[in-house]
TrEMBL record:
Alphabetical list of InterPro entries matching this protein: Beta-barrel_TonB, Beta-barrel_TonB_sf, CarboxyPept-like_regulatory, Plug_dom, Plug_dom_sf, TonB-dep_OMP_SusC/RagA, TonB-dep_OMP_SusC/RagA_CS, TonB-dep_rcpt-like
Organism (species): Segatella copri
Pfam assignment, any one: CarbopepD_reg_2
Bilayer topology: Multi-pass membrane protein
Domain TonB-dependent receptor-like beta-barrel: 438-1007
Signal peptide: 1-22
Domain TonB-dependent receptor plug: 127-236
Protein name (record): TonB-dependent receptor
GO cellular component, one term: cell outer membrane
Keywords of this entry: Cell outer membrane, Membrane, Receptor, Signal, TonB box, Transmembrane, Transmembrane beta strand, Transport
Source organism, top-level taxon: Bacteria
Parts forming coiled coils: none
Family per similarity comment: Belongs to the TonB-dependent receptor family.
Subcellular location: Cell outer membrane
Amino acid sequence: MIRQLFTVSTMIMALGMTPTQAYGGTRIQETNQSKNGQCTGTIIDPTGEPVIGATVTVKGKQGGTITDLDGKFVLSDVQHGATVCISYIGFEPVEMVWKGGDINVTMQEDNKTLNEVVVVGFGTQKKVNLTGAVSTVDSKTLGARPVNSVVDALQGAVAGMNFSTPSSGGTLNSTKSFNIRGTGTIGAGSSVSPLVLIDGMEGDMNALNPQDIENISVLKDASASSIYGSRAAGGVILITTKSGKKGKASINYNNSFRFDSPLNMPEMMDSYTWAKYMNDASVASGAGIWFTDEKLEQIKKAQSDPTMQKMFKNSNNRWEVWDNTPLLPLGNTDWLKEQFGTSFSQEHTLSINGGDDRLQYYVSGNYLNRGGLLRHGDDSMQRYTMTGKINAQITKWLRMTYNTRFSRQDFDSPGDLINGTDVFFHDMCRYWPILPTTDPNGNWLPESYIGRLQDGGRAKNQADRLAQQLSFVATPVKGLTLNAELNYRIVTQFNHRDWQTTYGYDCDNNPYVDSNATSSVYEYSFKSNYFNPNLFAEYSHSFGDHNMKVMGGFQSEWFRQRNITARQNGIMSGLPTLDTTTTKPSVGGAYNSWTTAGFFGRINYDYAGRYLFEANLRYDGSSRFLRENRWNFFPSFSAGWNIAREKFWEPLTDYVNTLKLRASWGQLGNQNTDNWYPFYPTIGFSSQGGNWLINGAKPNTASQPGLVSSTLTWEKSRTWEIGLDWGAFNNRLTGSFGYYQRKTFDMVGPAPELPVILGANPPKVNNLDMTSKGWDLQIGWRDVIGEVSYGASLVLSDNQVVIDKYPNPSKNLGSYYEGAKLGDIWGFTTIGIAQSQEEMDAHLAKVDQSALGSGWTAGDIMYADLDGDGKVNTGENTAGKPGDRRIIGNSTPRYNFGLNLDAAWKGFDIKVFFQGTLKRDYAAGGAVFWGAIGQGKWQATGFKFHEDYWREDNKGAYYPRADWGGGRNIQTQTRYLQNAAYGRLKNLTIGYTLPKSITSKAYIENLRFFVSGENLFTITNFTEAGDPELIGAGYDGGKIGETYPLSKTFSFGLSVTF
């Protein structure tokens, strides 16, 4: 009855539509011969229940019908000998040749879901038997939209996988950072990130062509990851690349052409509005009127009069830009629009695969050319990838796989764009709109940066990665598999940067030095080698309903890197190389290495597929620790109960056909410290670094070595989880939920305070603990209504981290402290903006705000006295005595989500992807947010949204009064705490696949065209000053808005297979 009610709406919508024939495994039956005419029948499932809403059509004919509540159907005007097609989600499709009479069909369940295999550590496993937390992403999802990297494709696709944009923002060489289930460590000098394995070898996802990937498994909990030991503290991402398939050679070519524009870039004030805004700020700061009424009138008139003189000569025969107010220019420039514009990118991929029973091959090549958003100076990126894989069955019991991958990434940009401080973006945001881009003689104004971007030198980076993988799999006896893998990777990188002298021009067109008076060249060369052998064996055996699998092996890693740097000054004209400079070079270099070794094993047991158990054991050693602390043991255990396979569940299998309860516990270690040799005392050496002369020359000097710790050892984490996986209505509805808690302990923390008389820096020790708690949910629905197939899936996750132990006994708010939640924001509570001097005076009569500033007046902030002492201050700046500050928010992203919607009909397909964060706070700061409030004259700026500042004719304003001086109004506070939650239409793709009846005539197997949009719109209450996806990126610790913007992208392309 439940299923009948559930599907009746589906029947109504599907009447008159024909079904998709997109299901494989079709079986053909024949009926007894009878007269032509009306075809009737009944469709039931294996239990004898009617299949309601099954689609019934005549092959090659439009129209059709669906079965009713009793599983019955009627088709009119069916030709004798026609093929009747029957399909229903969760069952194998059926084709029957009708020769008269009734059709009575028992549909069989489609066991693809039950037999789905998931890649896990050193092997595979049926998804239905998994007891750990594992998420998968297939090639269909990865290829659903044109993206620049695998990381972009994974954002929003895996529950519990969190992404953030780096400090470089949307620059072409920036790569999103990511974690699995939250922050892995807060250690001093330690780091935790997911281990990325490409066909079993550590690698860089950003160097991969997404179209070369077959599937991705994300191992999220300790039970799934612990088989990799010390490298897996942050979880594991297993990437399996495509292999050749048996059959004739299949050739695929696809491309995409993309047009990018800046995303969420704020609009600057026009010059006249800006000048009035700055006048208000200048008067409030005590500096008086900056722009006279006459000057204001000139600025306003110049906006509409192109013939009006815009710049004026000063006493130095140069064009005045900064100091002499009457001579200031009369431009009207939006500097962000001037510097950033649209760009064009293109990507091409060609792949060939095929083979027979003994040998299969896959070969592909990819070229990506991305243009940057800079309008002046140009920035670009090229990526070349080549992949080859051969699978050979050497004998009946021996199989060999050889895999090679090469990638090259070239980045080219103006040198001033990557000066290490992002000051270019900072300057563009605070540049005065009255400055024009060129002087009256047509030369680029030096202050515009344009000359520096075009002529001030280039920054070029080239990175090559070559991976070679060879593996043998032997099956000498039934149930026994022997594996031998050899992985080798070499990475080379070359960076070049040159600083060229640029010039400005005076009023008579005479040049003068603008930047880089001394030209120079810097070059950096890097090379690393990674060697990784794996040996392991697996034995599986079943007796009755008991199934067991045992695996054990050994793994080793060896990593070595070296680099050389050099810099010289005085470039000979036009030749920016080290050999064509005129001064003595400054050189440097380094060489270091690390190794790991580990023994591992796994035991899997299940009884009748109902009761599942798994144990993983790993014994790891790392060269980063002393011998007595070098080795550690990392176990994990997990169990599952397939409830839906119990006899008592049989009456419910029509509704919930898969239901699995699972639980796990495991321990992992982390060896990733910034110092690869923490147990060696090191002496700093400086060539000619002394401050005195010996025999007329500076001597070489060495510094006192710091102390080392003899007890420094692994950071460790213990995780437990309980989860539930389900499938309902023949797996049309599927889902997974997991709740976990991770205790990370013995993190490397700051050294304890010791008396200064010691004379040396004390070493870091293992003295930090924290706890992470969270959950993740993945749910999906897939169905067919007539000729329309559609689906929806949602991933949603949450995570919070609490500090359990930290050497901060006073709980000073300038550092972590016990009991703090990671991301807590301390701030004042805002009462409001004083609308008159009387209101401010009345407030100050009760509350002393002098600790935050002086000169309080109408338009200033009134803060709440929360501790009742009659003063507003920060107290002792501790968690116990914070004054009038409280925790007002938290910057940790929570409830990260991804929502996918898709549908297909008669060759057309549409995919919609939303991504975002449902809860996050941000304490905004910097000039782009505050404008001319508390920034000083030379850091102040003005954007359109800053026009909503307090003044007599705008008392209901969002911002307080404009005032260059003091920080009284820009304290971290509730009024200006930003809601950084957002939802973004990340992608919309529409495609059309030509019918095979057309393409087959041109010997084309498949031809699809598509159009796509990326980052199309955003729903958010976040400040207009920046993008919620760019929090933490940019100048001076990530001041909002002061970074390279993200892109909105429109693209089109095709995919053709021969």
